[in-house]
Amino acid sequence: MSAITPLHTAPPARPAARVPLDHDGSFARLALWATRRLYGRVLDPVRAALHHRGVLTASLVLEATAARWKQLSPTLNALAVMVVAREIGCSWCMDFGYWESHRHGVDPAKLQAIGSWRTSDVYSPLERAVLEYAVAATHTPSAVTDEMVSHLREDLRDAQMVELAALVSLENYRSRTNAGLGLTSQGFREDCDVR
User: Fold this and answer.
1) Nearest-CA neighbor of 114 among 166, 42, 189, 11?
2) What separation in angstroms does the CA of 128 have from each of 73, 85, 113, 118?
3) Does 11 fall in a domain?
């Protein structure tokens, strides 16, 4: 007997989320339509949050507010967010963050090198200091030192420093929530035209 080799193999199934992601009702249909319209597909964190309208509302208001924070450059913003998601191990946030940052013109090489940020030569000294701060602030307890902040303040204004701290906190919230609910990559990164 000869073995038959399939022409195509099915992609591995995504692990199941820890809460159901299917919803009925007019509110759910509206929320899912809105995310599909904004992002081209329904976001799993929204589907999960539909179980608790208070959490969903607070999350949406926070995200809408944070979207208007513009003190940091898109690159510094993206690097802080991506390194926190990686540190926590949230594949959903890594996937979506890569896609979102790519859409905002962040150099893909900087996004792809997040795993080796300490040794990669694609980062400027300021970018490396932001990455170091974001990782330290994500530790429990926080490992941020006065020296780190003093070094950052050589290049960042007070408003930028506050925004950086808030972005790190916000990504901790996102990543810990999504990882805790078992949400995994939705394939956003595959939609980027640069690899």
Assistant:
1) 189
2) 14, 16, 11, 7
3) no
Q: Is the pLDDT of residue 122 over 90?
A: yes
Taking all residues of the chain, what is their mean pLDDT, rounded to a whole number? 92
Angle between helix axes 125-138 and 158-180 (nearest 10 degrees) is 50
* Domain match, 81 and 124 both: yes
Nearest one of 92, 90, 85, 66 to 163, comparing CA atoms: 66
Domain of 46, in residue numbers = 26-66
- What stretch of H or E contains 102? helix 91-103
155 in the same domain as 59: no
| SS3 label, residue 184 | coil
- The answer to whether residues 48 and 108 belong to one domain is no
- 77 Cβ partners below 8 Å, 6+ apart? 69, 167
Structure tokens given for 75: 């690159």
